[in-house]
Design goal:
This protein is an alpha+beta fold and 283 residues long. The chain has six helices and 15 strands. Bound molecules: 2,5-anhydro-1,6-di-O-phosphono-D-mannitol and magnesium ion (MG).
Length: 283
Protein backbone atom coordinates (compact mmCIF):
# COMPACT_ATOMS: atom_id res chain seq x y z
CA UNK A 1 0.00 0.00 0.00
CA UNK A 2 2.90 2.34 0.76
CA UNK A 3 4.04 2.05 -2.86
CA UNK A 4 0.61 3.12 -4.02
CA UNK A 5 0.56 6.06 -1.61
CA UNK A 6 4.06 7.13 -2.72
CA UNK A 7 2.92 6.95 -6.34
CA UNK A 8 -0.07 9.16 -5.51
CA UNK A 9 2.34 11.72 -4.00
CA UNK A 10 4.37 11.79 -7.24
CA UNK A 11 1.19 12.07 -9.28
CA UNK A 12 0.00 14.99 -7.14
CA UNK A 13 3.15 17.01 -7.76
CA UNK A 14 2.95 16.35 -11.51
CA UNK A 15 -0.75 17.19 -11.84
CA UNK A 16 -0.26 20.35 -9.81
CA UNK A 17 2.42 21.39 -12.29
CA UNK A 18 0.02 20.78 -15.20
CA UNK A 19 -2.73 22.81 -13.53
CA UNK A 20 -0.32 25.70 -13.23
CA UNK A 21 1.06 25.49 -16.76
CA UNK A 22 -1.31 23.62 -19.13
CA UNK A 23 -3.71 25.32 -21.53
CA UNK A 24 -7.14 25.39 -19.81
CA UNK A 25 -9.14 24.80 -22.99
CA UNK A 26 -11.17 21.82 -24.16
CA UNK A 27 -9.66 18.80 -25.86
CA UNK A 28 -11.47 17.35 -28.86
CA UNK A 29 -12.80 14.33 -26.91
CA UNK A 30 -15.52 13.50 -24.40
CA UNK A 31 -15.57 11.00 -21.52
CA UNK A 32 -17.83 8.02 -20.83
CA UNK A 33 -20.44 10.21 -19.13
CA UNK A 34 -20.63 12.27 -22.34
CA UNK A 35 -18.92 15.30 -20.83
CA UNK A 36 -16.43 17.28 -22.88
CA UNK A 37 -12.92 16.74 -21.62
CA UNK A 38 -10.51 19.54 -20.90
CA UNK A 39 -6.92 19.16 -22.02
CA UNK A 40 -6.15 19.12 -18.30
CA UNK A 41 -8.43 16.10 -17.73
CA UNK A 42 -6.70 14.16 -20.49
CA UNK A 43 -3.22 15.12 -19.31
CA UNK A 44 -3.98 14.31 -15.66
CA UNK A 45 -5.39 10.93 -16.64
CA UNK A 46 -2.23 10.20 -18.63
CA UNK A 47 -0.06 11.12 -15.63
CA UNK A 48 -1.92 8.68 -13.37
CA UNK A 49 -1.80 5.90 -15.94
CA UNK A 50 1.92 6.29 -16.56
CA UNK A 51 2.70 6.42 -12.84
CA UNK A 52 0.90 3.15 -12.02
CA UNK A 53 2.33 1.27 -15.00
CA UNK A 54 5.45 0.67 -12.91
CA UNK A 55 3.65 -0.42 -9.72
CA UNK A 56 3.45 -4.20 -9.83
CA UNK A 57 0.93 -4.58 -6.98
CA UNK A 58 -1.62 -2.70 -9.11
CA UNK A 59 -3.62 -5.18 -11.11
CA UNK A 60 -5.77 -2.70 -13.01
CA UNK A 61 -6.88 0.91 -13.33
CA UNK A 62 -10.37 2.30 -13.84
CA UNK A 63 -10.57 5.99 -14.68
CA UNK A 64 -13.48 8.39 -14.62
CA UNK A 65 -12.11 9.71 -17.88
CA UNK A 66 -12.10 6.37 -19.70
CA UNK A 67 -14.38 3.51 -20.51
CA UNK A 68 -13.55 0.04 -19.22
CA UNK A 69 -10.74 -1.40 -17.18
CA UNK A 70 -7.06 -1.03 -18.02
CA UNK A 71 -5.31 -4.24 -17.03
CA UNK A 72 -1.76 -3.58 -15.82
CA UNK A 73 -0.19 -6.47 -13.86
CA UNK A 74 -1.81 -9.91 -13.86
CA UNK A 75 -0.26 -10.74 -10.45
CA UNK A 76 -1.25 -7.42 -8.91
CA UNK A 77 -3.48 -7.32 -5.84
CA UNK A 78 -5.28 -3.98 -6.14
CA UNK A 79 -7.45 -2.12 -8.61
CA UNK A 80 -7.14 1.66 -8.40
CA UNK A 81 -10.28 3.56 -9.45
CA UNK A 82 -9.64 7.26 -9.82
CA UNK A 83 -10.89 10.62 -10.91
CA UNK A 84 -7.68 12.31 -12.09
CA UNK A 85 -8.99 15.86 -11.90
CA UNK A 86 -12.32 16.29 -10.20
CA UNK A 87 -14.00 19.67 -10.61
CA UNK A 88 -11.70 20.49 -13.54
CA UNK A 89 -14.17 23.03 -14.94
CA UNK A 90 -13.31 25.19 -11.92
CA UNK A 91 -9.66 25.47 -12.93
CA UNK A 92 -10.26 28.34 -15.35
CA UNK A 93 -11.68 30.48 -12.54
CA UNK A 94 -8.77 29.48 -10.31
CA UNK A 95 -10.83 27.62 -7.69
CA UNK A 96 -9.47 24.51 -5.99
CA UNK A 97 -9.71 21.14 -7.74
CA UNK A 98 -8.69 17.63 -6.72
CA UNK A 99 -7.78 14.04 -7.54
CA UNK A 100 -9.57 11.06 -5.92
CA UNK A 101 -8.33 7.47 -5.62
CA UNK A 102 -10.15 4.35 -4.39
CA UNK A 103 -8.02 1.24 -3.87
CA UNK A 104 -10.02 -1.98 -4.16
CA UNK A 105 -9.01 -5.57 -3.47
CA UNK A 106 -11.17 -8.03 -5.41
CA UNK A 107 -14.50 -7.09 -6.98
CA UNK A 108 -15.24 -3.39 -7.31
CA UNK A 109 -17.67 -2.97 -4.41
CA UNK A 110 -17.77 -0.62 -1.46
CA UNK A 111 -17.00 -3.51 0.86
CA UNK A 112 -13.76 -4.25 -1.00
CA UNK A 113 -12.39 -0.75 -0.72
CA UNK A 114 -9.25 -1.13 1.39
CA UNK A 115 -7.79 2.37 1.19
CA UNK A 116 -8.49 5.71 -0.35
CA UNK A 117 -6.86 9.04 -0.95
CA UNK A 118 -7.52 12.47 -2.33
CA UNK A 119 -5.39 15.45 -3.26
CA UNK A 120 -6.53 19.07 -3.09
CA UNK A 121 -4.85 21.50 -5.49
CA UNK A 122 -5.48 24.87 -3.90
CA UNK A 123 -3.18 27.63 -2.72
CA UNK A 124 -1.17 24.64 -1.46
CA UNK A 125 -1.20 20.95 -2.34
CA UNK A 126 -2.77 18.84 0.38
CA UNK A 127 -3.24 15.08 0.59
CA UNK A 128 -5.40 12.82 2.73
CA UNK A 129 -4.66 9.09 2.96
CA UNK A 130 -6.87 6.54 4.68
CA UNK A 131 -6.59 2.82 5.37
CA UNK A 132 -8.71 0.57 7.55
CA UNK A 133 -6.33 1.20 10.45
CA UNK A 134 -6.82 4.43 12.35
CA UNK A 135 -7.94 7.90 11.34
CA UNK A 136 -7.27 9.46 7.91
CA UNK A 137 -3.95 11.28 7.72
CA UNK A 138 -3.58 14.82 6.45
CA UNK A 139 -0.42 15.98 4.64
CA UNK A 140 0.72 19.21 3.04
CA UNK A 141 3.34 19.52 0.32
CA UNK A 142 6.39 21.69 0.62
CA UNK A 143 9.20 21.70 -1.92
CA UNK A 144 7.82 18.56 -3.53
CA UNK A 145 7.61 16.57 -0.28
CA UNK A 146 4.55 15.78 1.81
CA UNK A 147 4.71 16.64 5.50
CA UNK A 148 2.32 14.96 7.92
CA UNK A 149 0.04 17.52 9.59
CA UNK A 150 -2.42 15.55 11.72
CA UNK A 151 -5.00 12.81 11.88
CA UNK A 152 -8.56 13.75 10.99
CA UNK A 153 -11.30 13.15 13.55
CA UNK A 154 -14.80 14.49 13.00
CA UNK A 155 -16.88 15.91 15.83
CA UNK A 156 -20.51 14.92 16.36
CA UNK A 157 -21.87 18.15 14.90
CA UNK A 158 -20.57 20.85 12.60
CA UNK A 159 -21.86 24.10 11.13
CA UNK A 160 -21.15 23.72 7.41
CA UNK A 161 -23.87 23.07 4.84
CA UNK A 162 -22.74 22.14 1.33
CA UNK A 163 -25.87 21.40 -0.75
CA UNK A 164 -25.16 20.14 -4.28
CA UNK A 165 -27.41 19.91 -7.33
CA UNK A 166 -29.70 22.48 -8.87
CA UNK A 167 -32.30 23.75 -6.35
CA UNK A 168 -34.96 23.93 -9.05
CA UNK A 169 -34.71 20.13 -9.31
CA UNK A 170 -34.59 19.28 -5.60
CA UNK A 171 -37.39 17.30 -3.96
CA UNK A 172 -39.54 19.30 -1.57
CA UNK A 173 -38.33 17.32 1.47
CA UNK A 174 -34.71 17.95 0.50
CA UNK A 175 -35.33 21.68 0.30
CA UNK A 176 -36.95 21.55 3.74
CA UNK A 177 -33.89 19.77 5.12
CA UNK A 178 -31.45 22.29 3.66
CA UNK A 179 -33.57 25.21 4.90
CA UNK A 180 -33.81 23.68 8.37
CA UNK A 181 -30.02 23.54 8.58
CA UNK A 182 -29.72 27.21 7.67
CA UNK A 183 -32.36 28.06 10.30
CA UNK A 184 -30.25 26.08 12.76
CA UNK A 185 -27.26 28.38 12.11
CA UNK A 186 -25.43 26.42 9.42
CA UNK A 187 -23.34 28.36 6.93
CA UNK A 188 -23.29 27.80 3.19
CA UNK A 189 -19.94 26.48 1.98
CA UNK A 190 -20.19 25.13 -1.56
CA UNK A 191 -17.57 25.73 -4.23
CA UNK A 192 -18.79 23.13 -6.74
CA UNK A 193 -15.70 20.96 -6.28
CA UNK A 194 -16.44 17.95 -4.09
CA UNK A 195 -12.80 17.57 -3.08
CA UNK A 196 -12.35 21.02 -1.51
CA UNK A 197 -15.96 21.02 -0.27
CA UNK A 198 -15.56 17.71 1.57
CA UNK A 199 -12.01 18.59 2.66
CA UNK A 200 -13.40 21.67 4.38
CA UNK A 201 -15.98 19.63 6.30
CA UNK A 202 -13.32 17.09 7.33
CA UNK A 203 -10.83 19.70 8.52
CA UNK A 204 -13.33 22.03 10.21
CA UNK A 205 -14.71 19.09 12.17
CA UNK A 206 -18.13 18.53 10.62
CA UNK A 207 -21.23 19.53 8.75
CA UNK A 208 -22.94 17.98 5.75
CA UNK A 209 -22.34 17.71 2.01
CA UNK A 210 -25.33 16.51 0.02
CA UNK A 211 -25.72 15.60 -3.61
CA UNK A 212 -29.27 14.20 -3.76
CA UNK A 213 -31.18 12.56 -6.56
CA UNK A 214 -32.97 15.35 -8.44
CA UNK A 215 -35.78 15.45 -10.98
CA UNK A 216 -33.22 15.89 -13.77
CA UNK A 217 -30.76 13.35 -12.31
CA UNK A 218 -32.70 10.83 -10.16
CA UNK A 219 -29.54 8.84 -9.48
CA UNK A 220 -27.45 11.88 -8.59
CA UNK A 221 -24.36 13.08 -10.39
CA UNK A 222 -21.43 11.73 -8.45
CA UNK A 223 -19.86 8.43 -9.50
CA UNK A 224 -19.69 5.59 -7.03
CA UNK A 225 -16.31 4.04 -7.78
CA UNK A 226 -14.16 7.11 -8.26
CA UNK A 227 -15.84 9.78 -6.15
CA UNK A 228 -18.47 8.58 -3.70
CA UNK A 229 -16.98 5.37 -2.27
CA UNK A 230 -13.45 6.74 -1.67
CA UNK A 231 -14.91 9.68 0.27
CA UNK A 232 -17.38 7.42 2.11
CA UNK A 233 -14.40 5.40 3.32
CA UNK A 234 -12.57 8.52 4.51
CA UNK A 235 -15.64 9.92 6.29
CA UNK A 236 -16.27 6.67 8.14
CA UNK A 237 -12.62 6.32 9.12
CA UNK A 238 -12.77 9.89 10.45
CA UNK A 239 -15.79 9.00 12.62
CA UNK A 240 -18.43 10.41 10.27
CA UNK A 241 -21.13 8.92 8.09
CA UNK A 242 -21.80 8.45 4.39
CA UNK A 243 -25.23 7.27 3.23
CA UNK A 244 -27.55 7.32 0.24
CA UNK A 245 -31.12 8.70 0.13
CA UNK A 246 -32.49 5.49 1.65
CA UNK A 247 -30.13 5.67 4.60
CA UNK A 248 -28.00 2.80 3.28
CA UNK A 249 -24.25 3.05 3.93
CA UNK A 250 -22.57 4.04 0.69
CA UNK A 251 -19.89 1.45 1.42
CA UNK A 252 -22.58 -1.24 1.14
CA UNK A 253 -23.20 -0.31 -2.50
CA UNK A 254 -22.28 -2.69 -5.29
CA UNK A 255 -21.92 -0.68 -8.51
CA UNK A 256 -23.37 -2.50 -11.51
CA UNK A 257 -21.24 -0.48 -13.92
CA UNK A 258 -17.99 1.42 -13.31
CA UNK A 259 -19.61 4.77 -14.13
CA UNK A 260 -22.76 4.33 -12.01
CA UNK A 261 -23.74 7.33 -9.91
CA UNK A 262 -25.65 7.56 -6.63
CA UNK A 263 -27.32 10.20 -4.48
CA UNK A 264 -24.96 10.77 -1.55
CA UNK A 265 -24.69 12.47 1.83
CA UNK A 266 -21.46 12.85 3.80
CA UNK A 267 -21.36 14.32 7.25
CA UNK A 268 -21.35 14.13 10.99
CA UNK A 269 -23.77 12.39 13.33
CA UNK A 270 -26.11 15.26 14.25
CA UNK A 271 -26.79 16.23 10.64
CA UNK A 272 -27.30 12.61 9.60
CA UNK A 273 -29.86 11.96 12.33
CA UNK A 274 -31.81 15.01 11.15
CA UNK A 275 -31.46 13.93 7.52
CA UNK A 276 -32.84 10.48 8.19
CA UNK A 277 -35.77 11.94 10.13
CA UNK A 278 -36.65 14.32 7.33
CA UNK A 279 -36.22 11.75 4.62
CA UNK A 280 -38.34 9.46 6.87
CA UNK A 281 -35.68 6.85 6.89
CA UNK A 282 -36.19 3.77 8.96
CA UNK A 283 -32.55 3.16 9.84
P1 LIG B 1 -16.60 16.26 -12.55
O1 LIG B 1 -16.07 14.91 -12.13
O2 LIG B 1 -17.10 16.28 -13.96
O3 LIG B 1 -15.64 17.36 -12.26
O4 LIG B 1 -17.94 16.52 -11.69
C1 LIG B 1 -17.91 16.32 -10.31
C2 LIG B 1 -18.17 17.61 -9.59
C3 LIG B 1 -17.96 17.50 -8.11
O5 LIG B 1 -16.68 17.90 -7.75
C4 LIG B 1 -18.97 18.45 -7.55
O6 LIG B 1 -19.38 18.12 -6.27
C5 LIG B 1 -20.07 18.35 -8.52
O7 LIG B 1 -19.52 17.95 -9.76
C6 LIG B 1 -20.73 19.66 -8.69
O8 LIG B 1 -21.82 19.53 -9.49
P2 LIG B 1 -22.81 20.74 -9.72
O9 LIG B 1 -22.08 21.61 -10.71
O10 LIG B 1 -24.03 20.10 -10.27
O11 LIG B 1 -23.02 21.45 -8.41
MG1 LIG C 1 -15.27 13.93 -10.84
Amino acid sequence: MLTIFDTIKDIAIKIDHEIKTEDLGYSDSSNTSGEEQLKLDVKSDYIVEQAFKDVSIVKALVSEEKDGVLELHADGKYTVCYDPLDGSSLADVNLSVGSIFGIYEGELTGENLVASAYVVYGPRIELVLATKEGRPKHYRAQDGLFNFISEITLKDKGNINAPGGTQQHWAEYHKRYVDALFKDGYRLRYSGGMVPDLHQILLKGGGIFSYPGTTDRPKGKLRQLFEVLPFAFIFEQAGGHAINEQGIRLLDLVPAHPHDTTPCFFGTTYEMVALKALYRMKI
